[in-house]
Each structure stands twice: as structure tokens, then as C-alpha cells.
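1st attempt posting a full record on here, be nice pls
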Amino acid sequence: MADKSLFEEIIDWIASLSYWEQYLAAKILAKEQITDKDINTAYKYFLEDSNLTKKKLLRPAIKLKTCSPIGPDQMEFKLKEIKGIKGVNALKEDQVIPLSDKLSIIYGDKLHVA
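the predicted structure (as C-alpha cells):
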């Protein structure tokens, strides 16, 4: 069995998210502009999913793109650094973490993604 492409891994991950997150992710994958109306709709889905309001909105099926959004010449990439870090207590504001070609290990107590 062939390994999944990065894009397929992302699609699988998106499918595991809440409906409101999938709603916005589908727009991003389709390269659509996220409007204030989209954010308000996603917020309403969030409130419904969190049982903070009654479910009122119709929920169309989320259709994630099934083909890769990049060309074959752009399929491989290498992550060279992590930067723009803010709010991580052990790291300086805007610290740059270079990544090795061979092996890089980043560890800590918990992973928080905002």
C-alpha cells in the first residue's frame, strides 16, 4: 500500500474536525476568500456543536477537494525553520528555530496550537 501524500493526510485530518472547522477548511482548500458572513456562519455552527444554542442551521455536506491543489513539480518540500512564535514560555518572542536536513526534535510538556 502506498503512503498517503501530504495533501491526503491533511484531508483526513480535516475530516476529523468539528463541522464548523471543516466548513472553513473546505473554503480554504477551494482558495475561496473567507468573508465575515462565512465567519459568522462558522460561529453559529460552533455554538450549535457546543450545545450553546439550539440547532437551527441546515448543514450541507462538506466537499473537500479530492485532487492536490499544487502541481506535480511542487509536491516535495522541505521545512527549513519554524518562526513567528509567540506566547510560548520557554521561547523568546519571534524566535527562529532552524530545522536540520537529517533530524530535528522539538519536545516539551504539552503542544498547544492556536
